[in-house]
Amino acid sequence: HWCSTNACDLRYETDCLHIEFHQRIRHILFSSFLSTYYICIVPIAFCNTHYIRLDIILLLQYGCILFLSLIMIYTSHYLPLELLTVFHRNGKHLGSWQCLTNNNNSLLIPLWDEKNQLAYQPNSIVKYKQHIYRSSNNCSTVAEPGNMCHTRFSFLFSRPLFLPLILCSLQIILLIIQIIFLFIDQRWFVLLSQMILFIFNTYTIHHTIRDVYLLYLVYCGE
């Protein structure tokens, strides 16, 4: 990311980062599903169920916990702190537009110019594709009005702690669910499998909390 004052360059960078983010999300989901398939499903094909009792409910329970745990682990790998910082710096410059329903004096409102290289000031009002938009009231705006990709990107990454706190909350919820399962079913093989996942999830949440703390130290003045 470069802190450019050219609005066209910032929009182009946003489009590239948006594609990169979605590609990494697809990698996370695909890798999590594939790993869950090889860990939970493939071994069943090599076991003789005539001699082994298969607990479907326990298998589904473990498969769901494993899939969610792998999503958290792969997320910490594919969305590291450095990349989230790049996303935030771009999202902060991007800004956002709010569509207005009141179209009074729309003839006096200037049209949004795609070729304009300067950012729009806070609370600027423009007309674009038969709609009236107002820019963010706390920062300049370079996003395209009505572009949902820009709106979502700004919503996710304009605040540096927003996405890391969501990930941290999900990991805490996952740990609580695992603890509940440990108290419900205390058979040794259930405890062993859940404790292995619990150790990995504990490391992941430690990694995420560390990232949140570092982001707070860097951006606490914002």
UniProtKB/TrEMBL annotation:
<feature type="transmembrane region" description="Helical">
    <location>
        <begin position="52"/>
        <end position="74"/>
    </location>
</feature>
<dbReference type="InterPro" id="IPR019397">
    <property type="entry name" value="Uncharacterised_TMEM39"/>
</dbReference>
<dbReference type="Pfam" id="PF10271">
    <property type="entry name" value="Tmp39"/>
</dbReference>
<feature type="transmembrane region" description="Helical">
    <location>
        <begin position="28"/>
        <end position="46"/>
    </location>
</feature>
<feature type="transmembrane region" description="Helical">
    <location>
        <begin position="188"/>
        <end position="205"/>
    </location>
</feature>
<comment type="similarity">
    <text>Belongs to the TMEM39 family.</text>
</comment>
<keyword id="KW-0472">Membrane</keyword>
<keyword id="KW-0812">Transmembrane</keyword>
<protein>
    <submittedName>
        <fullName>Uncharacterized protein</fullName>
    </submittedName>
</protein>
<keyword id="KW-1133">Transmembrane helix</keyword>
<dbReference type="GO" id="GO:0016020">
    <property type="term" value="C:membrane"/>
</dbReference>
<feature type="transmembrane region" description="Helical">
    <location>
        <begin position="161"/>
        <end position="182"/>
    </location>
</feature>
